[in-house]
Amino acid sequence: MKERLLSFYSNNGPPKHIIIYRDGISESEFVNTAREELTSVMAACRSLDSEYRPTISYVVVLKKHHTRFFVQNECDAKCVLFILLLLLLLLLLLLLLLQLE
Predict the structure, then answer these.
(1) Is the pLDDT of residue 75 over 80?
(2) Residue 61 forms beta bridges with which residues?
(3) What is the mean pLDDT of the chain?
(4) Predicted pLDDT of residue 12
(5) DSSP 8-state class, residue 61
(6) 56-84 as b/e, with b when 16 or more CB fall inside 10 Å?
(7) Distance, CA of 53 to CA of 56 (rounded, Å)
(8) Where are the annotated coiled coils located (predicted)?
């Protein structure tokens, strides 16, 4: 971390904000890992300048989801299409009713 910070610092000056994206931390390891990594980042910042205190955002990505963006088989695709057509039909009926009033 210190090498990357030093490289950025020498080319651009000190960053005002540091964002760390982290993946692969289990919930049981989260607190200890975050504490160690943030301590390391803050030490690297202080090694450049004792008064240097950028804002640090620590983002951890967990993979606990089962969301699918694509249908898995033809039957699912037909069901999705059928539901979309029904919604469109309901919308058209609603528009007709509003025009009749």
Answers:
(1) no
(2) 23
(3) 84
(4) 92
(5) E
(6) eeeeeeeeeeeeeeeeeeeeeeeeeeeee
(7) 9
(8) none
Determine contact, residues 77/71, Cβ cutoff 8 Å. yes
Which three-class secondary structure state does DSSP give residue 1? coil
- Whether 66 shows a pLDDT value over 80: the answer reads no
Determine the pLDDT at residue 68: 63
**Lowest-confidence pick of 11-15, 27-31, 65-69:** 65-69
| Phi, psi torsion values for 17, nearest 5 degrees | -130, 140
Dihedral sign of CA atoms 6, 10, 14, 18 in order: negative
Instruction: Give first-to-last CA distance, the chain, whole Å.
Output: 67
Strand ranges for 1-101 from DSSP E: 17-23, 55-61
